[in-house]
């Protein structure tokens, strides 16, 4: 049996039902990503969220880099969405 290429990301997809995608511009997220991660660490228990970078297909064949944040609760995902989107 083949092991997943990104086992921690696969585990996050399985464990956390609520996801928020942040598109990464070509210049990167820079300080904004640092601030988003700090907000999660300060606002949430470490067992209630995770974050990974991934590529997704958008509108056909274009690959888009995303910072995907995973949350255990809908309320936490919505608080993050209100703060960062």
Task: Write a structural description.
This protein has 85 residues and is an alpha+beta fold. The protein has one domain (7-84). The chain contains 3 helices and 3 strands. The protein has helices at residues 7-15, 31-43, 74-84; strands at 18-23, 49-58, 62-71. It has a 3-stranded antiparallel beta sheet with strand order 1-3-2. A hairpin with a 3-residue loop joins strand 2 and strand 3. The chain is globular.
Protein topology:
Elements: H1 7-15, E1 18-23, H2 31-43, E2 49-58, E3 62-71, H3 74-84
Antiparallel strand pairs: 1-3, 2-3
Task: List its salient traits.
alpha+beta; globular
Brief synopsis:
The protein is an alpha+beta fold and 85 residues long. The protein has three helices and three strands.
Number of discrete domains: 1
Question: What's the shape?
Answer: globular
Structural class: alpha+beta
- Strand arrangement in the largest pleated sheet: 1-3-2
- Tell me the series of helices and strands, N- to C-terminal: HEHEEH
Helical coverage, percent range = 25-40%
The total count of strands amounts to: 3
Counting DSSP H or I runs of 4 or more residues, the number of helices is 3
């Amino acid at each position: 049996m083949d092991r997943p290429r990104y086992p921690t990301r696969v585990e996050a997809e399985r464990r956390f039902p609520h996801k928020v995608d942040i598109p990464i511009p070509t210049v990167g997220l820079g300080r904004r990503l640092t601030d988003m991660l700090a907000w999660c660490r300060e606002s949430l228990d470490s067992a209630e969220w995770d974050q990974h970078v991934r590529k997704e297909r958008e509108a056909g064949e274009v690959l888009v880099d995303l910072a995907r944040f995973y949350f255990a609760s809908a309320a936490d995902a919505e608080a993050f969405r209100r703060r960062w989107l």
